[in-house]
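User: I'm curious what two different proteins look like when written out as structure tokens. Can you demonstrate?

Assistant: Sure. I'll show them one after the other, since each token string lines up with its own sequence. Here's the first protein:
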Amino acid sequence: MLLSNHLVMVNGEVITKFDYSLAREDEVKILKNRIDKPSTNKEKVRIPRMEIIYEDEYFIAINKPHGVLSVESDKDINSCYSIVSQYLKPKGERPYIIHRIDKETSGVLVFAKNEKVHSILRLHWNDYVKYREYHAVVEGKMTGSDTIINYLTENKNNIVYSTNKENGIKAITSYKVLKSNSDYSLLDVEIKTGRKNQIRVTMMDLSHPIIGDDKYKSNKNPIKRLGLHATRLELVNPLTKELMVFNTKYPVIFDSLFK
């Protein structure tokens, strides 16, 4: 009954087959309300075309558009995971979730294509990830570079905020200013830890919120989107021990604010 009524989701995708193969660390949700997959009529939500930036037998990496979920939720069935799933399905393959980026953030999003790689990375992510880079446009003029250490927690409304060491999880964020004017600054940001909304909260704490981020006190949105892009992810393939480098340039619209 659960399957036939579309009440089971695996990794954000509605599953109806009783013999669907589960991998270790797959996320299984039992829903309260039925979710129907998108119809083929004109009311279907249009999703931007995905740019594949790398693919081999172990990984597939895409340049995720802003405004699209990494993985489906019970409120939004459109996601990068579902599109990559459809792309791989004719080849007899499937994606496995190893990380996510926020819906309004664009940039490098990587899925595993190998079940063993997926299981190892999900259990030991921080051991295999070597570098995580973002580019961000923030409000106001900034100069120089710095490394910020703060402690984050989340309230019942899913808002992340800084707290004391005893009540939060440590987050380390380094930034370097690339361009600035009187209104905005373009930052190269490296995160040493992958906490939810880490960069967004850190910039808010510095009184330089990311543009378009009304969740974290930005009141400027000159490019009609969140000014955050995942530019580079480096991780070690746990099976081959090869260092994998996935990268994509930040959107040209970011530069338009500094001409």
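Here's a second, unrelated protein for contrast:
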Amino acid sequence: MGYTQTQMPAATTAKTRPNRLVERLLADRHSLPLSIALHLVPGVLIVAAYLLVAEPLVLGIGYPPFLGWAIAMFVALAPVQLGLLLWLGRQRNGRYSLRGVLRYVDKPLPRGKLVAMVAGLIVWFVVVSFALTVLDSVIYESFFTWVPFQDAGASATTYLDGYPRSVVLITLAACIPLTGLSFPIIEELYFRGFLLPRLSHLGRWAPVLNAVLFSLYHFWSPWVFLSRVIFTFPAPWFVWKKRDLRLSIGMHAGTTFLMQTLGTLAVLLNLMP
């Protein structure tokens, strides 16, 4: 005799019961407290991984803190952000897939316009971030000299200062596929493909809040918060406006890969002091 609905075994009922956490995370809207937590908690975990694991490791082997941050992101950023997305995809689709987890992936922009916009965004990112380094220095010297991170400073190269050229070269080359490419892509999938669309009920404030929280998430460089909001804001804005995630991936990963590769070549060719 087959089971009626009231006779169904408890185990089967449990399997078919919706996962409320998954439903909440994959809902069209995230509440403001939930969104804030999802934006900021990964940053806390990265800092914890650096202080507890990565910094003692790299200092013990004589390598710069720059490599320590790459290790911390490998330990905390990739598993937490990409891991959450893949887990949600498996819960939704029954397999490891990002279908239904990410938004803005329908590729509405034609290729030529996409390339032109990404190129413009990269130029904006590079020019504005360099122009605002003076502001970063002022903020660091005024408010953040107390931070506990080894060799912290306003300059992007401070974490590399004082180490032998060969060590710096190995560090930069090893980090190109990580901090130069993979981690920025993961961040864009998480922050712009997963979190930003679920703030769309805020209208024009959605990309603003996303840019502010993304900048705040970088707890390892709080003195860059203000300038980071400015030079990263076009990414969430245009992704939200054009509904194309490739814009922010191209801007973020394109810039970091370009700058880190050029920096490595500069050290290799003795073009840097």
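A detail about the second structure: Confidence is low (pLDDT under 50) at residues 1-16.
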